[in-house]
Every structure is written in structure tokens, then in C-alpha cells.
Write a structure and sequence with these properties.
Layout lengths: L1 E7 L15 H19 L7 E6 L2 H9 L3 E4 L6 H14 L4 E4 L9 H9 L6 E6 L6 E7 L12 H11 L3 E4 L3 H4 L5 H5 L10 H9 L2
Parallel strand pairs: 1-2, 1-4, 2-3, 5-7
Antiparallel strand pairs: 4-6, 5-6
Helix pairs in contact: 1-2, 1-8
């Protein structure tokens, strides 16, 4: 069973690297807009048999339930890696054979980008990685089985995940995808979105309000 896992940080705690550029209400609104748009995008993906959202953010969990997705409710959020790995074990216990972790802050991603990753799944120990724009982060990570190796999200995660995959003798595929590669961490990432968003998207509305 191919499963997509989406970890969602509580909106008021998200996007702390933008604190020097945006006040807390704007950052929380940004997280909410990213989540809304990304859930709409994932709903159009055809290659996944299940979607699971792990979060302590009630608004995100409610959006997931409205779509009929599986939810894992967190009572605390220690780190993204902790959230993803705990959820991966639960997904594996529920029958997931491959697990694709995707963040909500990749607003240029298309459903076809995700379907492409899912179409490349191999049985047995294998991993697919999509790096961030600077090549150091991991913007998409698929593991078969879901708990094949531990997560290391954060600075330098791509090299760490690649080393983990090689350590457990997994077949590894690296995909370069410029849409998935653009995640929102810095003010320059927001600038890079100029003219590329659907005018009807929540993110376009957020930019009109907070970055006119």
C-alpha cells in the first residue's frame, strides 16, 4: 500500500526562520495557507492508496478528516523527524508498504510530480529522495518499507538520509524536481514565487495581504 504522510506543525509555531521578516500572525497565516493549498493538491494525486496527516494542529486535522484521510493526533511535537518516524511505524502497522513524506511548504508542486515519485516505487529496501534547491535538504522522501531508516530532517538532511539508505543496502534513486525543490524557509523563497502561483490559491491570497 502506497501511503503519503504529511506532517503539519502547529501553525503558530511554524516558519520561525521567517521571524525576522514576518510577525507571528503573518507566519501562522502563511502556514495555514500552505496547508490548505497542499491538501488540495494532494487530493488530486492518483498514485497513493492512502493519505495520512500527523499533527497537533486541530485545523489541519479537521481538513484532513473532511477529505477522509487518516489522522494521527499528536499531544506534543518534539521534532519533525520524531513525528514522521512515529507515524511511519503506525502506517507500517496499518499495512503501508511504501511511505512518501511530503512537507506542506512546497507550493509549486503539481499532482503529477507526486505521482511520478509514487510510480517509481520498488519493492524491498529502497528509497527515493528529492533534494531542496540548495541540495542540502530533503523535500520529499519515500521509504520502502516505511520504517526502513530513521529520519534526519533539518540542516544537511539530504546527505544524512542518503547515508542511512546506503547503510541499510537500499536501492536509492535521487530525483531532481525544481517545483518540489522550492520550499518556503526564507524571504527569498517567497520572492521566488512571484508570478508562479494560481491566483485563486490561498497562498496568492496570503501574498496579496501580507506582501502587497
Amino acid at each position: 500500500m502506497k501511503t503519503i504522510l504529511i506532517p503539519v506543525k502547529q501553525y503558530h509555531r511554524a516558519k520561525t526562520r521567517l521571524a525576522k521578516d514576518l510577525p507571528a500572525p503573518a507566519r501562522a497565516a502563511l502556514a495555514a495557507a500552505l496547508c490548505e493549498d497542499f491538501f488540495c493538491l494532494v487530493a488530486e494525486v492518483r498514485g497513493a492508496e492512502r493519505v495520512c496527516v500527523v499533527s497537533a494542529e486541530q485545523r489541519a486535522l479537521q481538513l484532513a478528516r473532511q477529505r477522509g484521510w487518516q489522522t494521527i493526533v499528536e499531544t506534543e511535537q518534539i521534532s519533525e523527524s520524531h513525528s514522521v518516524d512515529a507515524a511511519a511505524r503506525l502506517c507500517a502497522a496499518m499495512g503501508a508498504t511504501s511511505l512518501l513524506r511530503l512537507p506542506i511548504d512546497i507550493p509549486l508542486t503539481k499532482p503529477a510530480d507526486i505521482d511520478e515519485i509514487l510510480s517509481l516505487v520498488e519493492l524491498g529496501p529502497s528509497a527515493i529522495l528529492v533534494p531542496s534547491r540548495d541540495g542540502t535538504g530533503t523535500n520529499a522522501l519515500l521509504r520502502s518499507p516505511p520504517d526502513l531508516f530513521p529520519s534526519h530532517f533539518g540542516p544537511g538532511s539530504f546527505a544524512l538520509h542518503l547515508a542511512e539508505a546506503q547503510r541499510c543496502s537500499a536501492r536509492v534513486r535521487v530525483i531532481e524536481n525544481p517545483r518540489i525543490a522550492l520550499d518556503i524557509d526564507e524571504d527569498s523563497d517567497l520572492t521566488a514565487l512571484s508570478g508562479l502561483l494560481d491566483p485563486a490559491s490561498a497562498m496568492a491570497g496570503w501574498i496579496a495581504q501580507y506582501r502587497p
